[in-house]
């Protein structure tokens, strides 16, 4: 297999980004979304010796994205986490200590869900574990980084599901539904819990 030059590699990633943007064409976008410039490692974790040790331990080479996001817990509580996407995993780190609390291999992610409306919510689906609902103003960049990292790792496209009513698994026995509706003052989001029938 031929090795890409740095210029060819950058061009390939730009092509992947354009393809990703075309797939999101049906989603209603904020005007400001198209104007944002991407700064992948916002928290500058790649320069942190603790993070370098974590990457080395897990056989990973680069931080593709980092930023503080909000995760909606299984009880509906909001909590800030540092999200880090590498070339092999998705990490949730404690905000103050940069201690790893959750690590998910990108190969275990089945798909990502988001609404058709201009909001900051997205769900990462992990069938072998639990799904995770996040809120971030940098959703587009997160999803793009996940898709590129997933493709680089698996050579397959990471599926994106766009709908305004989304079910996601919070544990073995409970599925939550999140619904998005457009109102006069913006997008309204509601969470509903329901038990899985065995």
From TrEMBL:
The record's Gene Ontology cellular component field reads: myosin complex
Which GO molecular function, any one, fits this protein according to its record?
cytoskeletal motor activity
Family annotation (InterPro entries): Myosin_TH1
The source's domain of life comes to Eukaryota
Residue stretches making up the TH1 domain: 27-198
Q: Name one Pfam family in it.
A: Myosin_TH1
Task: Name the chain's protein.
Answer: TH1 domain-containing protein
Annotated organism of origin? Amphimedon queenslandica
């Amino acid at each position: 297999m031929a090795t890409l030059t740095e210029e060819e590699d950058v061009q390939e990633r730009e092509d992947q980004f354009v393809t990703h943007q075309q797939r999101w064409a049906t989603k209603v976008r904020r005007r400001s979304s198209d104007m944002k410039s991407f700064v992948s490692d916002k928290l500058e974790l790649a320069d942190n010796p603790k993070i370098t040790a974590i990457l080395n331990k897990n056989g990973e080479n680069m931080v593709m994205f980092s930023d503080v996001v909000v995760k909606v817990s299984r009880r509906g509580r909001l909590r800030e986490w540092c999200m880090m996407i590498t070339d092999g995993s998705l990490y949730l780190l404690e905000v103050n200590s940069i201690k790893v609390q959750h690590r998910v291999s990108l190969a275990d992610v089945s798909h990502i869900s988001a609404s058709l409306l201009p909001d900051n919510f997205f769900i990462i689906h992990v069938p072998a574990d639990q799904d995770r609902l996040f809120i971030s103003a940098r959703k587009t960049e997160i999803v793009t980084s996940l898709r590129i990292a997933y493709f680089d790792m698996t050579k397959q496209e990471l599926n994106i599901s766009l709908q305004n009513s989304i079910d996601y698994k919070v544990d073995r026995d409970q599925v939550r539904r999140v619904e998005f509706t457009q109102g006069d003052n913006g997008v309204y989001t509601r969470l509903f819990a329901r038990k899985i029938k065995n």
